[in-house]
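Progress against Task 2.4 (sequence-to-structure conversion) is shown through the following example record, which the project officer requested during the mid-term review.
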Amino acid sequence: MRMWFTQVTLRLVASFLAVSTFAPRPAQAFTSYPDDFVNPNYMLARHYPGNTGGAQFSILKWADFLAAQGPWTVIDKPVVPPSGDLHDYMSWSPYSWPNCSALGNTTELPLPQVWAECPYYLRDGLFNPDVRMINNTGHFNAMADAVWMNSLAWAMTRINRYAQNAATFLNVWFLQNSTAMNPNLVYSQMRRGPGKGQMGAHTGELDLKCMAKIANAILILRNGNSIHWTSDMDQGMINWCQSFIEWLTTYWIALEEAMAPNNHGSYYYAQLASHYLIVNDTEGAKRAIQTYFTTTYMSQITASGEQPLEARRTRPYHYRAYNLIAMITNARIGEYLGLNYWNWTGSEGAGIKAALDYAMTIPPGTENADELYQPIAGVAAKYGDPDNKYANFLANVDPRYPAAPYFLWSQPFSDSGLPAARPGWSRKRDSSASKSTLGGSATLFAILSVALGFITWWG
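Structure tokens generated for the chain above:
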């Protein structure tokens, strides 16, 4: 009875969102998380805590929002890779800038001449906007977000259009002959200029950092026996990832990334473990996680909790949070595999919690403060929050945090009694609720909010 009521109510909410023209703004606007991994068993069991209605509502909204933008393909770019094959992934180094002063030109140079003849110099943290002319990176990230959110929405509701969305986007990017990406990153983060630009850099392996989301989605569809995740698609992804694993563990620029001591190394092992999960190689995934925590991780955190390799960058607040997310992703993958690295400490005796606690003491300055919110919730859920330090911090800086999708799987964690924990909450509707009458849409959303909040408690 509980499961039936849960399914019917979630279907009602999702169906209403799909057709409504007066649906409210989601309680939290879309944010692309750098990476994460949710235990597929948790999502498929659907025994979510009663304070996660707002987070569930946001996942449904994000899934529909992202699905409307797809599909995406690697061949959608205006510049052909040096191989001549549009199916090869390609990106330019994001922090490289040209200096054409030595060329002696008196007029503006055509862009292809700039790319080929002007020396390029690294300006750390300063993004060159022309990099997005070739937007394989942005398209891959958008695809990964859409696949992940739609698979989570399917796990919550069992509405098949969500699974179909995820399967379609994966098929177009990885499997369909006319649009599929070749399984390598030879031309990722290419540094342009004379004598350069014909090969990618090891830093380009970071372009596929979102593979944990992809693996997460596939495990949900596979383990949940979705009718839209066919045996042919499953085998196709296994074949693609097996080829990519061979490249990622043997090609010289990939091996350089494996040796990176900072966030690049952290994401390399998360990506490698994710590919192993897709090909059903549990032992390979375990080795990747074990290698990370016994090598790269050991020198990433000082006794104080500082991450010196991230702190020296031009955007230290961002990079501390960025690497923390990779650490947590690796720990979550490890936990899914039966490994416990949550209390593993580095060579100076500090671990993930100490790194988060230290990062919270540093003001963001001009950087985006919200980059730290996702790892705060992850740490609070795993290590506990007996004095409400983490909940109070988030409540002070972001009263909508219980409506963030990460709140659904970062449990147990307090919602601080905030109204954003309710499905579809918005300030506008809350203020209108104090009036003597409610419009039809507000009444319907109130009913749906109560229902969704109830099933998380009961089902």
